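Extended Data, panel c. Modelled sequence:
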Amino acid sequence: MTASLPFLGFPDRLGDGHTPCAVIFGAGHGSTYPVKDSSGYVSAADKIRTASQYDAELVEHWDFDLGGPLFDGGSVNCIDIGDIATTMHDNAGNRARIEAKTREVLSMPAVPVLLGGDDSVVIPFLAGFADHGPIWVLQIDAHIDWRDEIHGERHGYSSPMRRASEMPHVAGIVQVGLRSVGSARLTEIEAAQRYGSRFVTAREVHAAGVDAALRHIPEGARVVVTLDCDAFDPGIMPGVAARTPGGLTYTQGIDLIAGLGRRARIAGFDLVEFYPPADIDGLSAQTAARLLVNAIGTIVRQD
């Protein structure tokens, strides 16, 4: 596993006898469709790491998003172990490596934090929780990702929530930020509704606040958050493959994360679909880095 710059300058291990509360790792490729090229996502994790370097010397400073320093007055308790070696179109191998690393982190025990990669990396990430259920999934995304297959591939970026719904350890799914049009047809909408997925559109969040989504999460549940960057408005997150107006704001995003931390427990977190070739002046990388800071700060505060 390699990384040019660790997120916020975090170490890759803690001293003897100390277990991190969260472990960051990246995966550039998951299950790429036969007719697609996923190489544009490979640099996403390191672009986010690079953007975080502006704040690396400020880890002990007051963070107004969190209401205190990142580690709440304690020592650094998060590590960045770099990226899993993945290869485009080695779909089964990539899934096996992502799932194995997720299981390894959970066995520490620590909260795994995955940086994608397209949305296909979410499937093996969630599969890695098989021995740590039941879990709920909070998907923050513009799309429901419920296709059964595309071009014969059942583990691609349009299928993660469909595959999650088939996992026995997944107790429920809440999908927030939905808007516009994507790969879902009426058949996928009906399949998700039959499963019992809770749809919360971006418009509902704009009108009623983040509780429109959080109220569907059982209090005290263990929740894996999967955050697709296209959930956010392209004004703050232009670096995605499918820009769609009307998305969530940064404040809504961090309020979802903080509110979830108060209501339930974040058991895992992934951030996917940041597409560096479409970024503008590093804005998406910076926004993604700050979202990750908020996730880590929330995880720290739930221990």
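The first helix runs from residue 44 to 52. This feature is highlighted in the accompanying rendering.
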